[in-house]
Specification:
The complex is a heterodimer of chains A (295) and B (404). In chain A, helix 4 packs across helix 7, helix 7 runs antiparallel to helix 10 and helix 7 packs antiparallel against helix 11. Chain A has 295 residues and is mainly alpha-helical. Chain A has one domain: MetI-like fold (Orthogonal Bundle), CATH 1.10.3720.10. Chain A contains 13 helices and 2 strands. In chain A, a hairpin with an 8-residue loop joins strand 1 and strand 2. Chain B is an alpha/beta fold and 404 residues long. Chain B contains 18 helices and 12 strands. A 6-stranded mixed β-sheet of chain B has the order 2-1-3-11-6-12. A 4-stranded mixed β-sheet of chain B has the order 8-9-7-10. In chain B, strands 4-5 form a two-stranded antiparallel ribbon. The radius of gyration of chain B is 23 Å and the shape is globular. Classes of the chains: A mainly alpha (295), B alpha/beta (404). At the A-B interface, helix 12 of A face helix 3, helix 11 and helix 17 of B.
């Protein structure tokens, strides 16, 4: 590359870098700085307090709950969403009749806006008026109305269920694309050698799409950890913090109570987790690219 | 086009620093809407009237749905785009004043002859912070009235007046619960409506949230008794108390499966339109005590960043005038004279409402109110989830007293 080429490269990159800097890195670095200051709406003059906001947050009743909830939420959603997405993709890859229409229908939850999904499911879960209780009682599974979102025992499972319902078509789409790229001749060869469907899945299909699975899992980890609207609209983090995850806690602390310093501290923990996940994502993607046969 | 041109010329004149008499100022006024009452239409009529009386002032009204209002206003203030005038929830005034976001209106009110006696006292007090006036009461209401379903009560042979006492409400709730029906619409989600209802039970038992010295009083006997009573009463409420709000209870009340719901007088227009045969009593207190509700309502404030504070004040004076105030609110006008007329025209039992309004207590007028309220929400959820009340209240109080 000549030096004028290089200048050209930078010229083309400049607008993107500028946008990234202004809209991504500036706020992110700002958040880290803010977390060392005691700033709130009522005392807008930032006062440097060192680690004391961290000490306050770490010793609060809410922090361990938020961490635990975030782990449960993220792992629960990612695991179930990917499993369901994968098996749906397998099903839709069988060449069944009306496949095109089925694929479109399966995508529906994914295209619904999060807030709409949350309001819809709030109604479905309603203890007295909701569809779920009325069906379960009619089927004899339940004897009396259950308050899915109002009990600390079931609220997290209930919101995870909704997130999986909304998110699995996304994973399904990616898996479907990958499944369609699996070398047909290898599958045929395996069949000729007497391999059954399970064998073919384990020995041919899974190795062929291993990279896609990894990338998909890491990607949904990032998206899920950052999820906000479904949880906020359905439970506002309640009951008793049972569904408070990092994004809802940050929103409530910052915009509900105007405590920007503390919200920033939660934000920093959130950034750290995401940085690790993004790093894993990049490593996974690189190693996948390295293994891809050239040509 | 002409107007734009005029505005352009006017702003040029402003830039030049020539304060010409005829120059037109544009005021931005933000309000929120809590019901589907067509408030923005009637407000627009009043605003048109104001602009006719004051041809040199133009008012742009922005009406924002209640759930988004707090965040929109906060973001606007932080971003330096605050309106000239806005309605502030009573519980926000202290914080906005402490933050220096809104103007001290003490002198302007004195000059205009606006004083406490013309308004509901509790509403006026909610606009006072550190002895200065930061808002003018605009509208008020009180949490809560106990609205009851007459048919359900008659069917069970219950005297509606018995709902006014703790003992009576519990006995009635017990009798009315069963067969898919519920006695009492208690709710306990994380929200301000939960706080005001529980507060009113605490107030009615002689308790407080913060005492005169500003220390947490939620772990004192009157408050603990009230919360213990509610914890017990919760068994007669619809399942799912911890994620239920006043709106969910309204749905059940309107479909006839709930005997008693807790709402401010604001609920009346909804009930008037429904098929429910309803009535109401003023809150609930232990036998021999007076029910005391929790004040709610909004004050008009002028933002410190406004360049047209005099015009803004003129607009506020207009909005709280006796002949205007009743036309521009969906709660109850804060101007007492306007309120009497408004209630007589629009609400059942106007005298009963005025009595409850006059006795009501405000929530703590602290700049850190929102933090206190969050801690209260956690406490009330603990109570409704069955935790030992005294223990939970002690924990909440040590958190509240540790603020600052």
């Amino acid at each position: 590359m000549t030096s004028s080429d290089q200048r050209l490269v930078w010229a083309f990159l400049a607008p993107t870098l500028l946008l990234l800097g202004v809209f991504l890195y500036y706020p992110m670095i700002g958040t880290v700085i803010e977390s060392f200051y005691d700033t709130s709406f009522i005392s807008p003059e930032p006062r440097f307090v060192g680690w004391s906001v961290y000490e306050k947050v770490l010793s609060s009743r809410a922090f361990p709950e938020v961490v635990w909830n975030s782990i449960m939420w993220t792992l629960g959603v990612v695991l179930l969403q990917n499993l369901l997405g994968f098996f749906t993709a397998m099903l839709l890859n069988q060449g069944l009749p009306a496949q095109g229409m089925t694929r479109a229908l399966v995508l529906l939850p994914f295209v619904l806006p999060g807030v709409v999904t949350a309001i819809l499911w709030r109604f479905m879960y309603d203890p007295q008026l909701g569809l779920i209780n009325s069906i379960l009682i009619r089927l004899g599974v339940l004897q009396e109305n259950a308050a899915w979102l109002a009990s600390s025992d079931t609220a997290m499972a209930a919101v995870i269920f909704v997130a999986v319902w909304k998110g699995f078509p996304f994973s399904m789409l990616i898996y479907l694309a990958a499944l369609q790229n699996v070398d047909k001749s290898q599958l045929e060869a395996a069949t000729l050698d007497g391999a059954g469907p399970v064998r073919r899945l384990i020995d041919v299909t899974l190795p062929a799409i291993k990279d896609v699975i990894l990338v998909n899992i890491v990607l949904t980890l990032i998206l899920t950890f950052n999820y906000f609207d479904i949880v906020w609209v359905m439970t506002r983090g309640g009951p008793q913090n049972a569904t408070h995850i990092f994004p809802t806690k940050i929103f409530e602390t910052g915009f509900g109570q105007f405590r920007f310093g503390e919200a920033a501290t939660y934000g920093v923990f959130s950034i750290l987790v995401l940085a690790v996940l993004v790093a894993i994502y990049i490593i996974v993607q690189r190693s996948a690219a390295a293994r891809r046969p050239v040509g | 086009m002409k107007q734009t041109l005029f505005a352009a010329v006017a702003s040029l004149a402003l830039l030049a620093g020539t304060a010409a008499q005829a120059e037109e100022v544009t005021l931005k006024f933000w309000d929120n809407q809590q019901t589907e009452s067509g408030l923005s239409d009637v407000q627009q009529e009043a605003v048109d009237r104001f602009m006719a009386e004051n041809p040199d002032i133009k008012v742009e009204v922005t009406t924002i749905p209640y759930p988004e209002y707090q965040q929109r206003l906060l973001t606007a203030v932080q971003g330096g785009n605050a309106p000239d005038i806005a309605t502030l929830d009573q519980i926000w005034v202290a914080a906005f004043a402490e933050a220096g976001a809104v103007s001290d209106l003490t002198d302007k009110a004195k000059e205009s002859g606006l004083e406490r006696s013309q308004f509901f006292g509790g509403a006026w007090d909610s606009a006072v912070y550190k002895d200065a006036l930061y808002g003018v009461p605009f509208n008020v209401d009180v949490w809560q009235f106990s609205f009851y379903n007459k048919d359900l009560l008659d069917g069970a042979g219950i005297d509606p007046q018995s709902l006014a006492s703790w003992e009576g409400l519990k006995a009635a709730s017990e009798k009315l619960t069963g067969d898919g029906k519920f006695g009492v619409g208690l709710f306990g989600h994380r929200g301000e409506d939960t706080v005001v209802v529980v507060n009113s039970f605490i107030f009615s038992n002689g308790g407080e949230v913060l005492d005169a010295a500003g220390k947490c009083a939620l772990n004192q006997p009157p408050a603990v008794e009230a919360m213990t009573y509610l914890q017990d009463l919760a068994q007669y409420a619809p399942e799912g108390i911890l994620n239920a709000n006043s709106g969910n209870m309204r749905e059940l009340f309107l479909n006839g499966s709930l005997a008693v719901e807790f709402w401010p007088a604001l609920e009346q227009p909804t009930l008037q339109k429904s098929d429910i045969n309803w009535g109401f009593v003023n809150g609930t207190a232990p036998e021999g005590k007076q029910a005391i509700g929790t004040y709610g309502g909004w004050n008009l404030a002028v933002f410190e960043s406004s360049e047209h504070k005099d015009a803004a004040w003129k607009f506020i004076e207009f909005m709280v005038r006796e002949d205007v105030n009743g036309d521009v609110v969906d709660l109850i006008p804060a101007n007492k004279a306007a309120a009497e007329k408004f209630l007589a025209e629009n609400r059942e039992g106007p005298q009963q409402i005025i009595e409850h309004l006059s006795l009501a207590k405000p929530r703590p007028l602290s700049a850190r109110y929102l933090e206190v309220a969050e801690i209260q929400m956690t406490l009330f959820q603990d109570v409704f989830a069955g935790k030992e009340v005294q223990e939970a209240a002690n924990a909440a109080c040590s958190e509240i007293d540790a603020l600052n």
